[in-house]
Amino acid sequence: MSLAAWVRRARTPAPAPVAREVAFLEPADLFDLEIKDDPEASPVLCCTGDPVGAAAFNALWLKRIAASGRYAAAVSVRGQGGTPAAAGGVEARAHDVVQAAVAVPRQTVLIGHREGASWAALAAGRYPAAGLVLVSPRQFPKQPPKPVGEPPVLLVVSESEAQSKEAQAVTDAYGVAPLTFAGSPDDVFKGAAAEGLLDAVLSWLAPKQ
Amino acid sequence: MQEYSSQAAYDRGEAVCVIGAGASGLIAVKNLRENGFEVDCYERDTVLGGLWNPQNQHSPLYPNTHLVTSRSQTEIPDFPMPDDWPDYPSATQMLTYLTSYAKHFGLSEHIWYGSEIAAVEPVEGSRFEVIVKPAAGNAARRLRYAAVIIATGHHWAPNLPSYPGQDQYRGTVLHSSQLKDASRLRGKHVLVVGGGNSGVDLACEAAVNAAGCVHSVRRDTWHLPKYLGGEPADYALNRLGARPKFLRRFLTDRLLNGPARLAARMGIEVPGRGPGGEEPVRNGRYLEHVGDGSIRRRGEVARFDGYDVAFADGTEMRPDLVVFATGYRPQITCVAAPLLGVEGTGGTPQLMARMFSPKSQTLAVAGLVEPGVGVLPIVHWQTHAIARWLQVRKSDPERAKNFRDQVQSETTGQADGPGAASPRHRLAVDAEEYLASLARIIDTLEQEPAK
Ligand SMILES: Cc1cc2nc3c(=O)[nH]c(=O)nc-3n(C[C@H](O)[C@H](O)[C@H](O)COP(=O)(O)OP(=O)(O)OC[C@H]3O[C@@H](n4cnc5c(N)ncnc54)[C@H](O)[C@@H]3O)c2cc1C
Fold first, then answer.
1. Separation in Å, CA B24 to CA B30, B76, B91
2. Contacts across the A-B interface (CB distance below 8 Å)
3. How far apart are CA B366 and CA B371, in angstroms?
4. In angstroms, what separates the C-alpha of A10 from chain B's closest C-alpha?
5. Contact at CB, B79 and A4, closer than 8 angstroms
6. Residue A66 belongs to a domain with what CATH number?
7. Whose CA is nearest to atom 1 of ligand 1?
8. N or C: more exposed end of chain A, with fewer CB within 10 A?
9. Does the beta-carbon distance from A99 to B82 stay under 8 Å?
């Protein structure tokens, strides 16, 4: 974030605070001796535009991320899942993501799905994410902020979206080519396609952070 | 520093040395690491957090210290405080915050505790040799760095006045930093000397705990409550900065009218049109205590006499306890004075843009300003600029030149800033102007160079 952007924000009313629902899983919680907590690996924080919020990641994502040795978390922004609704548009939701990110014990990767990708991108303009992963972004800001601390960015879209305007816009904004996965962009939480997608994300993360 | 043996120095190559692990040092380490530098941070104490850590041997915290700046104006720009914290967090919360910042960004592994830096000496070109004060019986360690950032704070050397007869005074005298526990005030007639934030906070503590409180103030300053117009005062005033100039003056006057009238009623002559650059006092309770008589204001102390204290207005009192809330002297002893632009002994550093050494391109000081608003955001942008500069200095001669020109022009005229009038306020800057200056400096490092 630029100094000018911060000056503007410090003069803008902060969104009303809400008690956010956060789900998390640590590698040790899996009770599997094969799985080692990797203190070098960045934690991962997920969010999605799906109204169920954090709970969407319970079936597969959190377990799989934790099994890779990482602290895994997901947040429900205002109005999703167990987080009460409160005033504020995308900026307030991005604020919820930033607040969840600073509560993660270490510098975290942000993964956003659908509208969640937009919130994660806005959040990465204020918080130095260890990495930014955008999965099938929707309603993406026209000019997303430059991510603070220049984290690596990954764009993942379904094959059907590969040529979409949205994917093209994100590619242009960050200068990254999309990775594609088979299956529906709204159905990334369980099933074989979801597992394939998640493994691709985790292996992209592995050598970098 | 000949007293240290000439043991060979360990060369740390391109690494940068940060001195001090208070808020400023931690922010410096984080921003340097984010820009790809290897960093060694040396902290003389055994804990991080600097003055916010009561375990720090010299901590200046006094009973019930709370922030005087509000949360949104105090938090580090890229690491907000939890939004369920109060508008004005306590010293304990501030330490929790700094600790979680250090943990979040893995800063601790770069900090060497119990390592006081005794000296920083320029060697071969732009490099520095740093001497770590030896623990008893050991040889001093010497290390070489590509650059040094000093973040040792300026609240460690109590500034004690000396009034006639003070040496023979028979009562108890403490500096604000020595009063750790409000129970020391209980049942006593207390004299608090000093009209800054510490003095005013302590007078309020005495108003509710002591048998009586007299508050001696030499010079009137702006008194702001912690809230204005239903919002934290610093935020409310900052927000007006977004308004057009002509409206702004009007709105500011309107916002400050109430507090100014109340202060006037209590006999406080407020200087100028607004708090401007000089640190205002931010305490909503003080004037009410003056109004209900639990704090009695006096002018300057004239002399001490046995058990008595006489004031300039001719009145006298016999306090059980005198608390000097007379601030601190900025003091950086580990570097030769000329490197910091200090003239004579005991002078204040004269830095380029209030952070760069006038003599060396690779020596900078973080946090040596009193902006009258939250300090941490200012230090964030200072250290962001320093880290970018250290990158650009070698790799990009064109930007480097623009940067040097800009810093030079930002420095010209800084001597007559808001603090010029009083020696105790030499570190004062007008926050809005200083941030604009930092923005211009950062632009030379990040924008396409202007042809
Ligand atoms: C009572 C009080 C209240 C305040 N309230 C506010 C407020 O409400 N809002 C606000 O924004 N600011 C406030 N401040 C200002 C405060 O200075 C900053 O918030 C901030 O804590 C400054 O941090 P620092 O790292 O620059 O200095 P410090 O916290 O002083 O840290 C300096 C560190 O350097 C170490 N050190 C010193 N010399 C050496 C050496 N030679 N070698 C190695 N280590 C060394 C020290 O041990 C210390 O840990 C307040 C200050 C005081 C005294």
1. 10, 10, 16
2. 65
3. 13
4. 6
5. no
6. 3.40.50.1820
7. B61
8. C
9. yes
What's residue B319's pLDDT?
96
A15, part of any domain: no
H/E/C letters for each residue in A172-204? HHHCCCCEEECCCCCCCCCCHHHHHHHHHHHHH
- Domains: count for chain A: 1
Residues of chain B contacting A11 with CB distance shorter than 8 Å: 235, 238-239, 241-242
In angstroms, the CA B215 to CA B203 distance is 6
Q: Is A102 within 8 Å of B242 when comparing Cβ atoms?
A: no
The pick from B152, B180, B238, B383 for probing ligand 1's pocket by mutation, whose C-beta has the most ligand atoms within 8 angstroms, reads B152
B65 lines ligand 1 (CB under 6 A): yes
Ligand 1 contacts CB of residue B199 (under 6 A): no
CA of residue B52 to ligand 1 center, whole Å:
7
Q: Which atom of ligand 1 is nearest to the CA of B68?
A: 8
Nearest CA in chain B to A128: B78
Q: Is some CB atom of chain A closer than 8 A to the CB atom of B398?
A: no
Backbone angles phi, psi at B247, to 5 degrees: -75, -35
**Which tokens in the block code for residue B404?**
């040097």
In a domain, A13, yes or no: no
What pLDDT, on the 0 to 100 scale, is given for residue B394? 87
Q: Residue A32 has what pLDDT? A: 80
- Residue A16's identity, in one-letter code, is A
Of B71, B74, B73, B81, nearest in space to B104 by CA: B81
Question: What are the CA-CA distances from residue B391 to residues A73, A152, B100, B387, B399 (Å)?
Answer: 35, 20, 28, 7, 11
Identity of the highest mean pLDDT range in A170-179, B339-348, B407-416: A170-179
Residues 64-83, chain A, touching B (beta carbon < 8 A) = none
- pLDDT of the residue at B241: 86
Share of chain B above pLDDT 90, in %: 74
Using an 8 Å Cβ cutoff, are A151 and A79 in contact? no
Nearest residue of A to residue B82, measured between CA atoms: A99
B239 CB neighbours in chain A (<8 A) are 11
Residue A8 lies in a domain: no
Question: What is the pLDDT averaged over residues A58-87?
Answer: 96
Q: What dihedral angle (degrees, nearest 10) is formed by the CA atoms of B298, B302, B303, B307?
A: -20
- The reply to whether residue B82 touches residue A4, judged by beta carbons under 8 angstroms, is no
Domains observed in chain B: 2-157+328-445 (3.50.50.60), 160-324 (3.50.50.60)
Q: Which residue has the tokens 């990110």?
A: A101
Q: Over the stretch B12-66, which tens digit does the pLDDT of each residue have?
A: 999 999 999 999 999 999 999 999 999 999 999 999 999 999 999 888 998 888 8
User: Do the Cβ atoms of A6 and B77 come within 8 Å?
Assistant: yes
Q: What Rg value do the Cα atoms of chain B yield, rounded?
A: 23
Residue with tokens 């020595």: B178
Contacts of A86 in chain B (CB under 8 A): none
String of DSSP letters for B224-287:
E-SEETTEEHHHHHHHHTTS-HHHHHHHHHHHHHHHHHHHHHTT----SSS-TTS--EE-SSHH
The pLDDT of residue B2 is above 60: no
Restricting to B residues 353-382, those with a Cβ less than 8 Å away from any Cβ of A are 377, 381
- By DSSP bridging, strand A21-25 and strand A72-76 are antiparallel
How far apart are alpha carbons A128 and A130 in whole angstroms? 6
